[in-house]
Structure formats: structure tokens, C-alpha cells
Amino acid sequence: MAMLRPALALPFLLLLLPAAAGGLSGGRTLVFILAGQSNMSGRGGATNGTWDGIVPPECAPSERILRLSPALRWEEAREPLHAGIDVGNVVGIGPGMAFAHAVLAGSEGAESVVGLVPCAQGGTPIANWSRGTELYERMATRARAAVAECSGRGELVGMLWFQGEADTMRREDAELYRRRMETLVHDVRGDLGRPDLLVIQVTHRFLLLLSLSARTVVLPPNKQTESVIFLSGP
């Protein structure tokens, strides 16, 4: 299992993307699923039942960053990305827009577009994301619709998975997490026809997994959030 310093995470990820996307050819839409619980859907600036509306520069809109709407149509992405998706919760800033800007910055001159597919739902354990559940089927439906909406000029290249806190409450769930995560990755890759789908996982340090594949990279835990990042290639 390889280890990288956080500063090296993005360059390594951008090296994996061309292989996952078959090359960053101009004019293509690179589609990423955003799934997990509240840290993915975003709670930045969401306090006392409202979002403060403050958008950091790294999360600003761009004509090269799209969001799949709740109605399954591409639109210019704007915060909060999970508006209308994370049902019943007040959403704010999440990691999606900053990630998309970083991908674009690493593909200068490629004229690619990043298409984000928000699917996260706050407070959900990984068991709620197993094949056949409402959240899994919604995610798969939205991912297929996102690619179809690209009219042959888009490709599903990755899934960002930020989840795990809900599975630290009971020892049984924590012990089952590795198997459930491996099953989720296997099912997503199989059901979406992408056996080489890049999976970027952020989870709690108490849910440390063994390598999901020979190309998994694990970053050291964040000292404040206790989170760990896994980059899982084919």
C-alpha cells in the first residue's frame, strides 16, 4: 500500500485521469460522481438552518464546470452543488467545485469540461448505498443520464466518495466497512460498465481499509478531521 504526502495527492490524481478517461482529448466532458454523506454534499456556511451564500474563489462558477440537475439535465455548476439532491438538509459548500477547478487547472489546453453528478445524502451509512437501495439506484441512474446527456462527447472517469462518520457509531458497522466498500466499488464499476473506474475515497481514520487494488494510494490522516484519502485505480 503506497503512501503519499497530501501535497502530492493532486498531481498523482491528475496522472491517473488521462488513463481513466482514455486521454484528455479536447472538447470532452469528464464526468465525476459525487457520493457519500454530508461532507460530500456540503455543509460549509450552512448554520442555523440557512446557508450564508458565501462562495470562496476556488468554488466560483465556470463555463467549463457543469452539474447534473435533479431533472437530469446539464447546467452550469454553482454552489451549493447538492441543492435539490441532499433532500431534507440545508446544504452549503462541499468539495466538488474545488475539485473540478483543480482538474481543469491540471489539464490546461485540453479544452475539457468537468461534469459533476451530485448524489450524496447527509447522515447515511454505507449500508444505505448497497446495490438495490434507493440511493444506489439513484446514483446509477444519474450517472448513466449524465453520460447520455453528453451526446457521445463525455465519459465517466471517476467517483468521489466522502463518507464514513455514520459507520463509526457501532463497532459492527466499522468492522464491516471494508467489505461493504469493496462491494460498492465492485458493483459501481460493473453496473456502469467501467471496470477501470477511478475511485477517490475520503473516510474516517478508524475505517482504514486494506488496498482495494494494486494501484491504491493512501494519504496520511488529516489531523483536524481524522479523515483519510484513498485513490483507487483499476
Indicate the topology.
Elements: E1 2-3, H1 9-21, E2 29-36, H2 38-41, E3 46-47, E4 50-51, E5 65-68, E6 74-76, H3 96-105, E7 113-118, H4 134-148, E8 154-162, H5 171-191, E9 198-204, E10 217-218, E11 227-232
Parallel strand pairs: 1-10, 2-7, 2-8, 5-7, 8-9
Antiparallel strand pairs: 3-4, 5-6, 9-11, 10-11
Describe the structure.
Helices cover 27% and strands 22% of the residues. The chain contains 5 helices and 11 strands; from the N terminus they run βαβαββββαβαβαβββ. The chain starts with a strand and ends with a strand. It has one domain (56-222): Rossmann fold. Strand 5 (65-68) and strand 6 form a beta hairpin. With 234 residues, the chain is of the alpha/beta class. The strands form 2 sheets. The chain has a 9-stranded mixed β-sheet with strand order 1-10-11-9-8-2-7-5-6, with helices on both faces. Strands 3-4 form a two-stranded antiparallel sheet.
* Terminal residue distance: 14 Å
Strand composition percent: 15-25%
| H/I helix tally | 5
Largest sheet: 9 strands, mixed
CATH architecture: 3-Layer(aba) Sandwich
